[in-house]
Amino acid sequence: MDTLTLLFYTFSFVLVYAAFRVITAKSAVTAALHLVLAFANAACVWMLLEAEFLAISLVLVYVGAVMVLFLFVVMMLDINIDSIRQGFWKHFPVAGVLGAVIAIEMAFVLTRGFDMPTAKAFAPEVAKIANSKALGIELYTNYLLPVQIAATILLVGIIAAIALTHRGRKDSRSQNASQQVKVKKADRLRVLKMDPVIEQPSAPAESATNPTQGGQA
After folding, report:
1. Domains identified in the chain, total number
2. Using one digit for the tens of pLDDT, what is the confidence trace for 7-36?
3. Which of 128, 132, 151, 196 suits 52 as a labelling partner, its CA being 20 to 30 A distant?
């Protein structure tokens, strides 16, 4: 057994263990940390398979951004795992059947995909360029339409999430752009004609103390 094979089995074993701990850990923080470990080992496996772009993307996007944000959310919300785990065994048979079906479908697709003659025919040409460049060429030439459809679906999901979670505050002040466009000059400024008011001079106020009486103290 050479070094690459030993590293592959080591990273794969740690990856499977971390993925198992993600679904069996009682604490949400522990599950999130094991998920970070699983992502890191998956990136190592991709590095061994000479897929550097995917490995770096996994570390930067998932480990560096998504999981850190998820950890902050979990620790700030203090989620009660016991209430979430209620009814786990009740829905376990249905979940097990669906998981088995998904695993069989993925295995069928992957095994058929690896045996494609076109992939073997273009393997020497693809090996001459970097994998990140080859991935970009494939995504934006042969798979441009699926990429655009996926981006549109993600955009719709983001807008739907914002619309569902948005709650208008009563104390917030906002302006209606449509009403501002329809504003006319007469609505903003109104000139009033008023008669001038002439104020009458007021009588001088009497002194509080009489000077004649001031000397008779």
Report:
1. 3
2. 889 999 999 999 999 888 877 778 888 888
3. 151
Distances (CA, A) of 29 to 6, 60, 79: 30, 20, 10
User: Tokens standing for 64?
Assistant: 């560096």
pTM: 0.52
CATH number for the domain including 22?
1.20.120.1200
Cα Rg for the chain, rounded, in angstroms? Answer: 36
Q: What is the pLDDT of residue 215?
A: 47
Distance, in Å, from the CA atom of 179 to the CA atom of 132, rounded to the nearest integer, reads 50
Closest to 131 measured CA to CA, from 44, 55, 43, 40: 55
The answer on pLDDT for 159 being more than 50 is yes
Q: Rounded to an integer, what distance in angstroms lies between the CA atom of residue 126 and that of residue 135? A: 10
Task: Return the number of other C-beta atoms located less than 10 Å from residue 36's C-beta.
Answer: 20
Among the ranges given (11-25, 36-50, 69-83, 196-210), the one the predictor scored with the smallest mean pLDDT: 196-210
3-class secondary structure, 120: helix
